[in-house]
Amino acid sequence: MVEHILNLRIAGIVQETATAVSFLLEDTAGNDIVYKPGQFLTLIFNHGLHEVRRSYSISSPPGNNNQVRITVKRVHNGEISRLLLDHYHTGDIIKAAFPAGMFVLDDNKADKARDIFFLAAGSGISPVFSLLTSILHNTRNTSVVLAYQNHSERETIFRSELEEIAEKFSDRFKWYDFVSYPEADRHSSMRLNNEILEALIPAATRYQPADTVFFVCGPPSFMRMCQFTILLMGYRAAQIKKEYFVINTPPPPPLIVNPVERMVKVEGTREDIYFTTVYPSTILESALEKGIALPYSCRGGRCSTCVAKCAGGEVVMSMNDVLTEADIRDGLVLTCVGYAVTDIVLTYRQG
Ligand SMILES: Cc1cc2nc3c(=O)[nH]c(=O)nc-3n(C[C@H](O)[C@H](O)[C@H](O)COP(=O)(O)OP(=O)(O)OC[C@H]3O[C@@H](n4cnc5c(N)ncnc54)[C@H](O)[C@@H]3O)c2cc1C
Ligand code: FES
User: Fold this and answer.
1) pTM over 0.85
2) 306 pocket-lining for ligand 2 (C-beta < 6 Å)
3) CATH topology of domain 262-347
4) Which has the minimum average pLDDT: 56-70, 102-116, 289-303?
């Protein structure tokens, strides 16, 4: 089995806003939960024979790996968000895949003098909060800018924590607080749009624009607006990291794959696993059909939980919104949208 599963106990529940709740989770075995800021947990629910998975970003500030926090926003008609908010209590146990995801900081440059912009809306603050607090605590030279869009002050997740951080790190943390329907006098109604962003970025930039990194997380239209604006301003695509919470239906398979049965070898630490795959099944679908537990969450090429390294052979992907050009050069592939063009060898990072 390739996938590693955690059993997590709910150690506490915090109502953040009327529609968002944080769950503090600890490993029932008492082990630390090892994650990088910006990563997510994929919760696994069994409804009879039917398995349902949903990912939730870790929103914890640094300091306590014994207990991690996820923050779940209620989605109208949502199956799992409503289940969690309405029926889960302190002490309940939830199964989860090990923390995963590529919405993380490139470690090599951790304390470089550079600007890191976080562009978040609504529950998109969850991975951003973990990232920005960790950067502020663990570096001395990095300048951090947050542009955070919300419907109202009351619906702003982590508002009071952000106010404290803004005061504590006033020399190198700047928070642009956008509220569409303000309740307080100090706010005028403001929505982050391309014109505002185009003015905000140069005004808040302190270091070389070529070293700037952008982290974007929010609803699809917000993410599109941010991405296009940043690219039009002349930044490179590699400078933008994106985390999608809303996954569209899986993309159609590419029409170029020869429908010949291919052998997949998954190299394991103890033993190798072999299975066959044939177009139009993806590598992940073929594995799951045969009862082989490869990791996955969205099944739509957006979250990167299923990422593997192709150490031999060739894989084509029908879409890719998370792997960078460098990742692809390193041989990384998304098995949920990946098709084997030859016999292939896959390796997985161990949880
Ligand atoms: C990598 C990753 C990290 C995530 N982190 C978080 C997080 O930190 N906090 C959080 O609250 N959610 C997060 N999500 C979203 C979460 O996984 C679920 O998709 C969300 O809770 C809805 O699940 P559901 O079962 O309630 O809704 P479903 O029953 O799956 O969907 C019901 C309807 O809501 C729409 N929908 C699905 N997701 C969303 C959404 N996020 N916003 C608006 N409409 C939606 C669907 O298209 C569908 O029409 C993350 C998703 C990914 C892929
Ligand atoms: S499972 Fe989400 S990208 Fe493959």
Assistant:
1) yes
2) yes
3) Ubiquitin-like (UB roll) (3.10.20)
4) 102-116
